[in-house]
Amino acid sequence: MSTPVVTRFAPSPTGFLHIGGARTALFNWLYAKHTGGKMLLRIEDTDRERSTKAAVDAIIDGLKWLGLTWDGDPISQFSRVDRHREVAEELVKKGQAYYCYATPEELTEMREKARAEGKPPRYNGIWRDRDPSKAPKGVKPVIRIKAPQQGETIVHDRVQGDVHFPNKDLDDFIILRSDGTPTYMLAVVVDDHDMGVTHVIRGDDHLTNAARQTILFNAMGWDVPVMAHIPLIHGADGAKLSKRHGALGVDAYRAMGYLPVALRNYLVRLGWSHGDDEIMSTEDMISWFDIDDINKGAARFDFKKLEAINGQYMRMSDDKDLFDAALSILPEIEGGKELEAKLNEKNRSEFLKGMPELKERAKTLVELIDNAAFIFSDRPLKLDEKATNLLNDEGKTILKGIYSALESCTEWTKEKLDHIIRNYAEEAQLKLGKVAQPLRAALTGRAVSPGVFDVLVILGRDESLGRIRDQIA
Ligand code: GLU
Questions:
Q1: What is the CA radius of gyration of the chain?
Q2: Strand 299-300 relative to strand 233-234, pairing
Q3: 357-394 pLDDT per residue, tens
Q4: Looking at ligand 1, which atom is closest to the CA of residue 8?
Q5: Domain 385-472, CATH among 1.10.10.350, 1.10.357.10, 3.40.250.10, 3.40.50.1370
Q6: What is the DSSP letter of 334?
Q7: Does ligand 1 have an atom closer than 6 angstroms to the CB of 11?
Q8: Is the CB of 20 under 6 A from ligand 1?
Q9: Whose CA is nearest to atom 7 of ligand 1?
Q10: Which tens digit of pLDDT belongs to each residue from 20-57?
Q11: pTM confidence score
């Protein structure tokens, strides 16, 4: 039996869970689920100055919102520094690493010399074979790995193929700083080993690190996990992802009104595909996901596409679920707090009643809420400019006519209302639109809204007649 798969998501808590990180987490989660393995969560909080509790919380909230779960408790990398130090010292004992006492001046000189020779700034190995008894007094050393100097280090990457790194380009990098703290390179290797990680799936900005980490795994005689470096996400124009392109925190996507299932579905297709399948259930995603189908080229983030997928998910959603989702983001959206303050039993039930119609017309929850704004408006309604224009003298005359026709209606259903208004338009020899527009303006305060018969039904008889009366009085 082969060893069970263990993946990990290892964010640095220096900011929110950004969209690239969310995709990395998703791929790790899917692969673990697909293989019946585990995904672990490791918080890489060794940078004490830049790591914050708020960022840890934001990452955890973001993962939970996306429905991505991990096994066991999150592991704090910082809490493992003693173990990292122990491994560094063990490497020294094994002759695979050494204390380096180079002074800042010597290091500066090395860099300058390399620069003058047009070479990358590399450590020259002065303490590699020097007798430690020559160590200057009072200098706290760092520990450096004794990296191979000849040949090459190959990262056998499941996405990128074999990537060759000439060892002369990978110098004796530091694994333990002079203050006894581990470097990122060491901490990752020790943790991945101790956590039993079998598959490292992460952004391809870590590919060079993978070479250095391979050296460390080998130095300890540990198995190198399977590596899979995923191409980064670019903007729709092919440029590096910036804020403008969508390089935002997952929380920003929630506040823009995207559903987590839709975002997840969109993200899985960013750099991975299963034929031409676009919309897929979680079960399908899990059963289809494999590392071998991760694309080699950079994926492009496309808001239009995300919106389209989100719109599809909204239409497929249960009305009550959508209602709950919309209410849950109110505190995060513009004008949402005011709406929240106005919520009562009546408008809640109207909102829910309007959902089948509302969800057909919106691509995001924000749009859905905006389209539903008429439900929450207080009488007399504030009209926007277009609505005001629609309710000119001619509009008001039409509205008066509709009012009397509607007043006598006792069975307030879409069919009945449709019938009454069509009749009215026919008798007045007006096109339906000509009649519907001033009515819409009076009912919603806007020139665009869901279908006017639906609006009448959602608002109910009393509120509808009241709103019309306000405009013709
Ligand atoms: N902490 C690193 C990051 O957030 C990831 C390290 C890793 O996956 O090995 O970019």
A1: 31
A2: parallel
A3: 999 999 999 999 999 999 999 999 999 999 999 999 99
A4: 8
A5: 1.10.10.350
A6: T
A7: yes
A8: no
A9: 10
A10: 999 999 999 999 999 999 999 999 999 989 999 999 99
A11: 0.92
